[in-house]
Amino acid sequence: MDLYFSPLACSLGSRIALYEAGADARFYRVDSRQKRVVDDGADYLKINPLGLVPALRTEAGDVLTENAAILQFIAARFPEAALAPTDALGRTRMQQWLCFIGMELHKSLFVPLLDEKAPEEVKRYALDKQISRLDYLASHLANREFLLDRFSVADGYLAAVLGWSIATSLELEQWPALTAYLARLRQRPSVAKAWAEERALYAEELERRAKV
Amino acid sequence: MDLYFSPLACSLGSRIALYEAGADARFYRVDSRQKRVVDDGADYLKINPLGLVPALRTEAGDVLTENAAILQFIAARFPEAALAPTDALGRTRMQQWLCFIGMELHKSLFVPLLDEKAPEEVKRYALDKQISRLDYLASHLANREFLLDRFSVADGYLAAVLGWSIATSLELEQWPALTAYLARLRQRPSVAKAWAEERALYAEELERRAKV
Predict the structure, then answer these.
(1) Burial letters for A59-77: b for 16+ Cβ neighbours within 10 Å, e otherwise?
(2) What is the pTM of this model?
(3) In which order are the strands placed within the sheet that holds A26-31?
(4) How far is CA B23 from the centre of its chain?
(5) Which of A60, A107, A133 shows the shortest C-beta gap to B108?
(6) What is the C-alpha to C-alpha distance for residues B27 and B1, in angstroms, rounded to an integer?
């Protein structure tokens, strides 16, 4: 399988899932500004016309997009890794969390906060509207190790998204349950490895941009 | 099953799915401003702490939230209605569309456009960033009847979301493939019935608000 990613983007969640599964995967870095695959300069818009990472090319050659869909595909492809519940209610609970992370945190809160070009008013609107989502999440995680009863692909996605707070005006320390959750997850081998690798790639990228 | 909904909110998609399935369901209207169940005045935040519709109480008494998760639950609960693909790739393709509708259209485009309290700058940011998503969707739907090869719960969700354009500055007529798709779907009995019922309830609501 081939995963198209950008360092520390939400595709980090897909990388974590692949590591958890012990999948045989190659990783292709995408320059998210130029919409090019870094290694060979290929036009990424031909792989995903939306220009978003991740995209996953399966062993059968199909190209999948949208992080939450890819995460569930990986979980189903490697059932022995037990990365998702398989009963109807458990599957729905995981989908609930994937929706919450994707819609309430990723798109509605962090995209505007991380966007250097977003006007202050846009950032303020996102914060006013969405900050209560972090309260809700923190109260859910206060006495739990994971979002569900055990690790699932939703935790990998959430680890990626919460990690973005450091690049925003959000002080995650306001929610000790969230910082503790993130610290615990970063002790997990798959997360630790993925995070260290992408952090290094991201630092490289910042350095390169600074030189331009 | 009990569906908690607000007229013409994204919960319309869940109602359509229940009609398609011929499910035995009751429908409880939620006042989305007061966060109360209209019939009995119950505190809706005790049902869904996020205050969002839909929520679905299953026959077993579990309360499910997040539209895309509920839609997939309904599809799995009523397999004879064939509301979702059951093969791995087909399931992923449907999840891709559910993510796209939820993240790119619902949350990133329509929530700010529909929000009466959102500053103009916030609406402009949403339009600038997301309008290309409608081009992408229109090119996908240009020669197709449905998002996938046949009707799925994702079409019900998309019908609900595209219907919101009438209350915004978006002129859906710019994308003939989208208006044609929406018109086709509204001919479908489940969609026609759900849409007519909720449109009437919404008109009632507007009238009530105008009197206050």
Answers:
(1) eeeeebbbbbbbbbbbbeb
(2) 0.98
(3) A36-37, A26-31, A2-5, A55-57, A63-65
(4) 18
(5) A107
(6) 9
Q: Are A23 and A75 in contact (CB under 8 A)?
A: no
Please give the distance of CA A86 from its chain centroid, rounded to a whole number.
Answer: 22
Closest CA to B113 of B128, B98, B100, B99: B128
Please list every residue in chain B whose beta carbon sits closer than 8 Å to the beta carbon of residue A60. Answer: 89
ipTM of the complex model: 0.97
Q: What is the pLDDT of residues A117-134, one digit of tens each?
A: 999 999 999 999 999 999
Closest by Cα among A158, A11, A135, A100 to B69: A100
The type of residue at B17 is A
Q: What is the pLDDT of residues B140-190, one digit of tens each?
A: 999 999 999 999 999 999 999 999 999 999 999 999 999 999 999 999 999
Q: Determine, for residues A77 and B88 on separate chains, whether the beta-carbon distance falls below 8 Å.
A: yes
Distance between CA B203 and CA A133 in Å, rounded? 31
